[in-house]
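Work package 3, deliverable 3.1, input record:
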Amino acid sequence: MPDVVPTNAASSGVKLDKKSLKAIAARSDRPGLVYLVQWSLGLLVTGAAVWWSVGTLWMWPAMLVHGILLSVPSYAMSHETAHGTAFRTRRLNEAVLWITSLIYMEEPLHRRYSHTNHHTHTWHVGKDSQMPFDTPMGFGGWIAEITGFALLRFHLSVFFNLAIKRYTPTMRAVAPESELPKMTRNARLMLAIYAAILAAPFFGIWWPVWLLVVPRILGAPVMLLFTLIQHVELQENAPSILESTRSFRGSPITNFLYMNMNNHVEHHLYPQVPFHGLPALSDAVRDQLPEPDPGFFRTNWEVLVVSLRRSMGLSTRAPSIRQAPHMISDGGPVRRIAERTM
Amino acid sequence: MTTWVDACATDDIDDEDLIAWHHGGHRYAIYKTDKGFFATDLMCTHEEESLEEGLVMDCIIECPLHGGRFDIRTGEALSAPVSIDLKTYPVKVEGGRVFVALG
């Protein structure tokens, strides 16, 4: 028997015939390239709105919209390319992984390998290297997560550790030894780019501040609202993805920004399926899965209310989102299950 | 001494696909590509995942769990997270049957 039993369709008891899976998982460059063109055009429009509104109060809503369009797709595309599923052509995939990870602010190979580990040990305490908050989540945890500062601090520590070749036990556990020098090279190059961006205003160059830095800070909370609801309030240490992971109903806007990753249960069951195949995968396995939770706003609202009520010692049953049984209480002290690993 | 073992019919495998074949307590993958038939170990060298549901693209097999890629013809580990090559086995086709060289 193998030492590792990965959390996926097999461990969840979900089945899909091979012919259907192969058709759904087929790779192509086209959908990813179309997405890149649409995203770039969108950024040109929102970037122009920021440029023309600088100096007025309109610059703030413009930077928020631009920041959401910068942050959420960069997360989603960096995730998709870390899986290697965004494009059929590997070099194209790797180039886009590098650029979108630069915007998302995580060293690309660290992103890939820690995420590999997340798929193998999804939401398993002490094994999953991508548990971004303590569970069960209270209001303090919600604030730390949604402001983006906890994640920023973690990613910066990864950058600096890699840059000075101080490889943590987690890095050594998830990444092959041969990849560590590449990770160091990437970290140094990316830190140099960030330093240049931060230094630009000292030379009278302000456009990176208005088009990149401030929008990225403003857009981060929206990006993190997407990632928060992937596993929050669900079961730790479950072999079944159906118990540990949440899908939610999408809309055309959220589906675009998040590259269909609202089908998150489906993604964890079959991580080889590219973003453009997820709707078809969802249709194919629907009768074996729990109903998706309500949409982005309703799901996040319920998570926020539950977190707040938990911190106040009140009952924590949410009206409609799925929760693991131990997440539902009538109030009182909270027993910590997992500590954040990032 | 090499023994040629009858593994399957050529029609048992779809184009650009593989099947799992169990023989003598070992698990093998047998591939049909536009370059011909090939055989490797079935389990990914990264984390003991079966390649059976992996994608075959040209002469590359991609692990379904983490996306590591191997060259089907040589077993070479091509891209992260795999770094250890797959073992390969000689294959011949005779009379519509695929034979794998073992031993």
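The mean pLDDT of chain A is 95.
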